[in-house]
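Recap quiz, item 2
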Amino acid sequence: RMSVVGFDFGNESCVVAVARQRGIDVVLNDESKSETPALVCFGDKQRFLGTAVAASSLMNPKNTISQIKRMIGRPFADPELQQDLKALPFSVIEGPDGFPLIRAQYLGEVKTFTPTQILGMVLSNLKSIAETNLNAAVVDCCIGIPVYFTDLQRRAVLDAARIAGLHPLRLFHETTATALAYGIYKTDLPENDQLNVAFVDVGHSSMQVCIAGFKKGQAKILSHSFDRSLGGRDFDEVLFKHFAEKFKVEYKIDVYQNARACLRLRAACEKLKKVLSANPEAPLNIECLIDEKDVKGFIKRDQFEQISIPILERVKKPLEKALSEAGLTIDSIYAVEVVGSGSRVPAIIKILMEFFGKEPRRPMTASECDARGCALECAILGPTFKVREFHVNESFPFSIAFSWKVAAPDAQSGAAENQQQTIVFPKGNQIPSLKALTFYRPGTFSVDVQYADVNEVQAPAKISTYTIGPFQCTKSERATVKVKVRLNLHGIVSVESATLLEEEEAEVPVVKKSASEGGKMDTDEAPTDVPPSTAETDVNMQDAKGTADTPGDDNGVPASGDKPAQMETDARVKVPKKKVKKTNIPVKELVHGGMLTADLEKAVEKEFEMALQDRVMEETKDTKNALDSYVYDMRNKVHDSPLASKSV
Amino acid sequence: MSSELSRGYDAVVEVGLVVDKLSEEVAALKETVHGGVEVDEKDIKALTELLTRQLVKLDGIDAEGDGKTQRKMEVRHVQGLLDTLDKLKARNSYFCNRKKSAQCETSESGVGRVHAPSL
């Protein structure tokens, strides 16, 4: 039987939801809680995962790995990662590939692990929670990811899932999952008038906004926006700095000089923030903070909001962006839903209210929406359940471009090759999507997949490189190569296949001159009502401007191909349809910073070994407990027996 | 039950019981180290961590009157223990370093806990 499970993996904690005949259930872990810590602890004899770590984490901080979501798929030099690493108690070094490696003492030796491996462990813990609950094997699932995850981060999550023995049917944007969980239960959606709902997720360390338009049986994602490092923890930091400054002046103590004092003040500020969520003012008292000095502080909510202005200002930006990219005005927003741990801060609610002019609603199950939405999506995609007809039209948050080398137009000047770039999946492109590019090349060539706007993603521009070839072109100088490019359900772009197209009759192309300028390409967008999985778009990358005019000059300027309107103006002679022979061309993929298949297989094996070791240790413990109770039992029996009394 | 005058008292006492248990372990470690025997640094760290947790727990108790007085006493107690552990750690790593530099093998002969009189 296929499993229908949704996983929400957070930076701090994770939630598991499963689909049952009667609906979606959030699964409780062995501590009867819905939230399981996203922690892995390495011990001398075994690993501890999730709830089992909480008990030992403070005992063994250097070997307790946390906050893996912030680390996954990011280069070591990433400034945000560097900032995060400062606050982490375990050791992270730069690996030979420029990506982080986590060092921990395991089985009495210092070992290194990739963030992908650690996420694999977190996921395998979630998997076993689901399996215990369902009493069945879990393989198929749907995993929630932030909308801002890069191609590489998405691939890393898939690799981690593979390590955990999971098969994600989809990596689902968290806010979209929330939108799905909202819409599918809303029975009063109108047939024609679209209800626009803004979903705001303020988490521990990041914020995401999604605006979706709902109609009966469907949701269309209109826009996504985010701030990768704005969340509840920033408010704690503001309070911390405020009091640290205050105490420096009032008590002449510097908490920054004393790690323990910092820790105590930080804990006190977190508590203070919670008190301020429900009260107009809150006190702060810490005894003997430094040098036997008792410190006293006090803050009113409006004062807290005053010092939080820089953060609150930042909250507005993603809101504005989401609204403008959705092409909507405030008046056309029907409702605002707010989720995430940071949504408890009244100042954030206030900002949302001011911005949208209406009270945001915090769903009862705010922390569970993502997991629920993921389980619903898994149910929709899988064969196990028949789900109420509801279609989500997802939109992709980044612009993806393809680039390739072309010879400089004037080959005589000896100029180097030029790079030509064209956007294949523009921002807002629906997910999934399949497009076909046509290249005219004499032999093996390569294409780079990259972000069109690096500022959007804060990641290296280049995602992957595909080498297409070798192939033989017998009939003409250049072969016609049709390259299929897929933006898949996970939001990952890849070249799916390349086909050599050869016309059976040896006829020279009739198109003498094409009107389109260099760099431009023609896309025939599929009609929007076509189901997304079959939506295919043709993009033509014809080689030279006027192929026949400058034979042998590989300047690869895309020109118009089969777009009917231009065919009429360019080609005087109509070409009769010829029989086309199709041959597959090998495609070699290189994902920059990606995990090699061989390494992934090794990681899968390693995880298996570690899981086995854990099981052996758990079983030994069980056996030992059984033995202990046996000994105890026997002792009682012996003491109670007449023989024992005789010997006394 | 708990009036305004002794708010938080019971909660503080509860943490105090945990601290007392931990303080026994601190005393045992102190005895060992002062007896000139090296201990596993992990034991010191673990105790430090556990005591810090109690400290944060104490900070989080809403206390008034007697409760507050009791809390202050308990905070002092924990901080004293933490200071002791900090000193033990320094002393222990001094052993460690000396041993490494002198290549001496005292640890082989001195395995286990030797209860030498404390200094």
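The longest helix of chain B spans residues 65-102.
Residues 103-119 of chain B have pLDDT under 50 and may be disordered.
End of item.
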